Amino acid sequence: MLIVIYLLYVKLSETIHINRLLGGRHLFLLNKAEKSLADILLAEPVPRAVVMVGAYAPSARFIKLARDAGLDALFINVSFVGSEPLARELGAEYDGVIVTQVVPHPEDRSLPLVNNYQKDMETYALGKSPSFGSLEGYIAAEIFIKALSRLESPPSRENIIDALEDLGEFSIGSGHVLRFGENNHQASHRVWPTVLRNGEFVPFEWSDISSLLGQ
Fold first, then answer.
1. Range 62-90 average pLDDT
2. Strands (DSSP E) found in 29-137
3. 3-class DSSP state of 203
4. What share of the chain is helix, strand, coil (3-state, %, to 5)?
């Protein structure tokens, strides 16, 4: 199942301010993609952006159908879609698709975290390609190890939870401060935008999004 939310009017500035948001929400199975696309194509005014939450296969199919039907909109997926399989499905013919990531780009060795991740990949996962998914797991392990290092007694469910919640503000070299506490188990709320270029997702800045909308 795929959720499609379409934005009908977006005014952009350096802070990505949305002046007016009119939209619709479509839930559909793969074989209903054409019907939902028809609804969007008939919308007034024509959507400028389509925000999608779904797996890579139905997302890729919808993007292809929409682009081939002449919908000149910005397609945005969340990290759940799976960047690597989505890129394989879309190839180099559908540049400009955005995926928001919950971790930095796995090739950005300017960050100490990613540099360490790459070195460990070369040592312990020789032949495997860096990916957003494996970097996310690496970050989770880094945080878990940081909490374990604080334990003064054999690990248990209770003292591991206490150690994690006592981390407070800390850094693991990702370029921003992480926070963990009794009422905050998210650690990071940052999003890294990537855009499809020549068949692969590369980093870009939100301030450049207007160029993707043809403004």
1. 91
2. 49-53, 74-78, 98-101
3. strand
4. 40, 20, 40
